[in-house]
Amino acid sequence: MAMAAPIHASSITKISSTKQIYPFTSHYRPSSLVLSHTLSIRSTLRRPMVAAAATTAVEAEPRSNSTAPSKSLPFRVGHGFDLHRLEPGYPLIIGGIDIPHDRGCEAHSDGDVLLHCVVDAILGALGLPDIGQIFPDSDPKWKGSPSSVFIKEALLLFAHNAPAQTET
């Protein structure tokens, strides 16, 4: 896989279909670009795709031939990751479902790895710290809490931190 020089987020805010975005010679044009969390471009020789890390905001603008102002749709992407050790004596809860098993996720809360990933993705899209920093296991308030509480709290944070939507 060929690596290009790192780029800055400001240089990828808008990609036009008529603008050449490949810094390669005309005989080598990758058919897709993947943007990693370190903001360096990698060629994958597949369909066009741009992926970004959790805190990267991407603005999508529809192609238009008219001179009317475009209605852009801002969106954010967040990636969640969670990991718990399976130990005897703990419940195994995944996606809010209690799964009968002799081991479960050792955790300060209910250890629901799926909902923890969703919370991490929401927090990451907002540019906030991960679930362990927002809901620390050192805080007795969260001891044994169902992960649905973290989802509700993350959605409240979203409501307070999301960019305002304007109608045009």
UniProtKB/TrEMBL annotation:
One annotated GO biological process: terpenoid biosynthetic process
PROSITE patterns from the UniProt entry: ISPF
Pathway of action: Isoprenoid biosynthesis; isopentenyl diphosphate biosynthesis via DXP pathway; isopentenyl diphosphate from 1-deoxy-D-xylulose 5-phosphate: step 4/6
Catalytic activity: 4-CDP-2-C-methyl-D-erythritol 2-phosphate = 2-C-methyl-D-erythritol 2,4-cyclic diphosphate + CMP
Enzyme class: lyase
InterPro entries, sorted: MECDP_synthase, MECDP_synthase_CS, MECDP_synthase_sf
Gene3D superfamilies: 2-C-methyl-D-erythritol 2,4-cyclodiphosphate synthase
UniProtKB keywords: Isoprene biosynthesis, Lyase, Metal-binding
Domain 2-C-methyl-D-erythritol 2,4-cyclodiphosphate synthase: 75-158
Necessary cofactors: a divalent metal cation
GO molecular function: 2-C-methyl-D-erythritol 2,4-cyclodiphosphate synthase activity; metal ion binding
Entry EC number(s): 4.6.1.12
Protein name according to UniProt: 2-C-methyl-D-erythritol 2,4-cyclodiphosphate synthase
Protein source organism: Vitis vinifera
